[in-house]
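Any chance you could type out some protein's one-letter sequence along with its backbone structure tokens so I can compare the two?
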Amino acid sequence: MIRVLVVDDSVFMRTILAELLSKDPDIEVVGTASDGREALRKAEELAPDVMTLDIQMPKMDGLATLEALSSKRDAPKVLMLSSLAANEAEITKKALSLGADDFMLKPRNLSILRTIEPELTAKIKQLLSIPLAEKPRLLSGEPAGCVVLIGSSAGGPPMLDMLVSSLKPNLRASVVITQHMPEGFTVALAQRLNRVSALPVHETENGEILNNGNILVSKGGYHTVISGTLSSGGKHAGRVIHSRSPPVHAVRPAVDRTFASAAKTFGNRTISVLLSGMGSDGGEGTRAVRDAGGTTMVVREEDCLVYGMARSALERDSVGLVVPFKDLPEQIMKAVARIGG
């Protein structure tokens, strides 16, 4: 049993979170707390494995609580819960720098609060199942001849944890992840993934070259467009261009923009993957990758929280492989090897 302490200043939120977590047979809610002071006291008394921690609380807020936990031995893993507010993005980044193990967006619309149950329980379990990765000696800044594109939305972040933690450090490709997420939060996602990945992970930067062994997370609020360029050594390379053009499928970054632009640049040396996600974003982009001679994959339906994005690609007859999620890292590595990235 995973012992969880729920910390939130809202009685309603504490009640709902405890109720959702208690439905899972592998999780036991050992207590709740309304502020940081109470949370620290109960952490000592109850010895939880994981603490869910609100950011804004009276008496002692989430950041102060993290600082206090950092000096304690055998402190619990911490999952920060942040509301969907752009002005809290910097606070979320600060929380991760202070030692929070992961973060999760908490919907302001209370009517859909219960829908976070699958992602919430998955994140808590992953905190204890995915070890922090030791970074190997970094590959040289060699421009990637092959690109792996990953698109996801609802239900995607827990899958991204598992996927990037399983990719081998000798991957001779650049990986670009496009996750539907509000502006400001993708840098925190990248920081989280960097902790569990043997490969370096960071948020995309405008103008940067796609290099072997790097994992990029598309910057929130911008489309990540992949264009062709020449590296300093005169080799063909891919380059990130940030675009503020209108949202596609009501989102920015959009998976379709990244997939389609990368297919034009890398052609048959493009590998696309769709994970869990709501809506149809990714369908047209997957078709563009297929038409360019690239490799297209989606995860099977039973492994996804929502199957809209993958289904949109399947309906366009654009998918070469439907893969069990547990086999996805191996399939990606094999595809890169076949291409000779």
Notes: The chain has two domains: 2-129, 147-339.
